[in-house]
Amino acid sequence: MPPETDLYEKDYYAWANETAAAIRSGEFCRIDTIALADEVADIARQEKRSLRSRLEVLISHLLKWDYQDKKRTRSWAAIIAVQRIRAFKLLTDSPSLTPWLSENLAAMYKSPFNWPYGTPARVKTPFRLRALARSTRFSPSSESTSKPP
After folding, report:
1. Would you say 45 and 17 are in contact if contact means Cβ atoms under 8 Å apart?
2. Is 69 a member of any domain?
3. Is 43 part of any domain?
4. Which helix (H) or strand (E) holds 28?
5. Model confidence over 14-47: pLDDT tens digits?
């Protein structure tokens, strides 16, 4: 039986379940391979988008922490801690994203999302991957919000 190509467009959930069942049973002729290839590629893109999003939030909060020190809050510190954990979990689960991250970190740092009013003159270099991963500078149980994360 040939794959039902309309099902992918009409009912994604049913298509996904039928495709999974066909793979498990070894009935590969029932699989819409074009749709499956598109979905697998989309999973990879989603991992990259998720990592980018987490790092943009992390970088923006690290910048706020560094440049708005009188406005520091425990919520900023918590966001920094959580985004670090989640970003590096993504890298642990998908280590092949590390080279992509190394190549794109500077662009994420310079993103208008992180600098809505332009890059401050006193900022010289973007964060390095190691600095983003540094978690020993911040303890979530710390009473002081003056410690850098």
Report:
1. no
2. yes
3. no
4. none
5. 999 999 999 999 999 999 999 999 999 999 999 9
> Does the residue 14 lie in any domain?
no
- pTM (whole model) above 0.85: no
Task: Count the domains in the chain.
Answer: 1
Tell me the residue range of the domain where 56 lies. Answer: 52-133
* Residue 132 half-sphere exposure toward CB, CA atoms < 13 A: 28
Q: Please answer whether residues 132 and 59 qualify as being in contact, where contact means their C-beta atoms are separated by less than 8 angstroms.
A: yes
CB count within 10 Å of CB 65 equals: 21
Annotate 101-127 with b (16+ C-beta within 10 A) or e (fewer): beeebeebbeeeebeeeeeeeeeeebb
Q: Quick check: is 119 in a domain?
A: yes
- Compute CA 73 distance to the chain's CA centroid, rounded to the nearest angstrom: 23
Q: Could you give the count of Cα atoms lying within 13 Å of 119 in the half-sphere of its Cβ?
A: 12
Contact 107, 56 (CB under 8 A): no
| 26, 102, 109 from 41: Cα distances, Å | 22, 21, 26
CA 31 to chain CA mean position, Å: 30
Q: How far apart are CA 108 and CA 78, in angstroms?
A: 21
